[in-house]
Write a structure and sequence with these properties.
Layout lengths: L2 E2 L3 H4 L8 E5 L4 E5 L6 E2 L5 H23 L6 H17 L1 H9 L1 H22 L4 H20 L3 H9 L4 H8 L2 E6 L7 E2 L4 E2 L11 E7 L2 E6 L7 E4 L2 H14 L3 E4 L6 H5 L11
Parallel strand pairs: 5-10
Antiparallel strand pairs: 1-4, 2-3, 2-11, 5-9, 6-11, 7-8, 8-9
Length: 278
């Protein structure tokens, strides 16, 4: 079994009698399975990263997720653990890896420019080292070229362990957290379940973040002045909108507690009309 990029504990919130339904938009098929068998990839993380995610991110958040699922009030410690969990979940999935590594050529170019400037200054101050400095320039160009062509996963690992993005966590904590409950319609989840409008992030006045937390519960983090947080019954429109976001965000798979005929056509839609919840 590979490393889980969506934690098993999270996915069990979408199981019924130990079974969860997986919908594969690439192969246009659905099948029953278990949380332990999905949303994983062999060799995705180093063992150090796997241990870090389990002990520093997942374990501290489990009590908070459990409390939310039974409508208990969260402490500030719970909120912090859950915020770190959500931010890390956004970064640790395959889409997060792709996003991080796609930025590496730009980072490499900046590192290369800084290094060239330093070597130029060194040559000015110590011209007798010109031959050696030229050799360092050539080595740097070769190393940078390799990183641009094939970014090392260690660069992504560093991002996963960088205190889970403290500024992003603080920004999320400053939002109103609303927990939306649905008794009749199910929330879906996916292989990339954290959603926000990426062109605006989560810091602007109109920002929203949604994350299904079980088949009957979803987190809605918002800056809307119309709410200060708490637990609310989800309207049918809110459930549909959150499910649209989850399907839109998915890389390949949706996951559901109940097998329903509308889910596969829903997943395979080519265009999505996404809207605000308020």
């Amino acid at each position: 079994m590979g490393h889980h990029f969506v934690p098993q504990f999270y996915l069990k919130g979408f199981e019924a009698s130990g079974r969860i339904w997986a919908y594969d938009k690439l192969e246009s098929r659905c099948f029953p399975t278990q949380a332990k068998s999905i949303a994983n990839e062999t060799g995705m993380y180093s063992e150090d990263i796997e241990s870090f995610l389990a002990t520093k991110i997942e374990d501290p958040a489990k009590p908070a997720i459990t409390k939310v699922r039974v409508r208990e009030r969260l402490s500030e410690e719970d909120r912090l653990a859950l915020a770190k969990y959500v931010v890390t979940l956004w970064k640790r999935v395959p889409r997060g890896r792709e996003r991080a590594l796609s930025k590496m050529p730009e980072v490499a170019d900046q590192v290369h420019a800084n290094l060239r400037e330093e070597l130029d200054q060194l040559e000015i101050s110590k011209p007798e080292l010109k031959e050696r400095i030229d050799g360092l320039r050539q080595q740097a160009e070769q190393i940078i070229a390799r990183h641009k062509q094939n970014p090392a996963p260690e660069l992504w690992y560093q991002g996963l362990q960088s205190e889970t993005g403290p500024q992003i966590v603080e920004t999320m904590l400053s939002m109103h957290w609303v927990f939306l409950w649905s008794g009749s319609q199910q929330f879906l989840t996916s292989d990339n379940p954290v959603f926000f409008f990426e062109h605006e992030g989560i810091g602007s006045p109109s920002s929203e973040l949604t994350l299904p937390l079980s088949s009957s519960l979803a987190l809605w983090a918002t800056r809307s002045p119309r709410t200060t947080g708490g637990h609310l019954n989800a309207t049918p429109n809110a459930v549909r909108e959150i499910n649209r976001r989850t399907a839109h965000n998915s890389e390949r798979f949706l996951y559901a507690q109940k097998n329903e005929p509308w889910i596969m056509p829903f997943l395979r839609k080519k265009q999505w009309a996404l809207s605000r919840l308020y």
